[in-house]
Amino acid sequence: MSSYSVAEAKNNFSKVLAAAERGEPVSITRRGKVVADVVAREPARPFRIDVEELKRRRVLPKKGPTDTVAALEEMRNERSR
């Protein structure tokens, strides 16, 4: 378990959070006494992108000049079907 003073935790807050996300509890101390423990609520899950799903959901504008308002309206209409 890692331990940081309040000042160290303040200056290295992203490291404290990263350790907690990895499942490592981190103690915060003030004058040598533990005043708080930082732990993740739930273990971090790796973020995965499903490229095939993104390709299936891809919306392409119809041929011709691109009219942004019309393209948005078309996407909204397709979604509501």
Question: How does the SSE layout of this entry go?
Answer:
Elements: E1 2-5, H1 6-11, H2 13-21, E2 26-30, E3 33-38, H3 51-57, H4 68-80
Parallel strand pairs: 1-2
Antiparallel strand pairs: 2-3
Instruction: Give me the number of helical elements.
Output: 4
User: Sheet with the most strands?
Assistant: 3 strands, mixed
Strand order of the largest sheet: 1-2-3
Category from helices, strands and their pairing: alpha+beta
Q: How would you describe what is shown here?
A:
By secondary structure, this protein is of the alpha+beta class. The protein is 43% helix and 19% strand. It has helices spanning 6-11, 13-21, 51-57, 68-80, and strands spanning 2-5, 26-30, 33-38. The longest helix has 13 residues, at 68-80. The protein is elongated, with a radius of gyration of 24 Å.
Quick tags:
alpha+beta, 81 residues, 3-stranded mixed beta sheet
Please provide a brief summary of the model.
With 81 residues, this protein is an alpha+beta fold. Helices cover 43% and strands 19% of the residues.
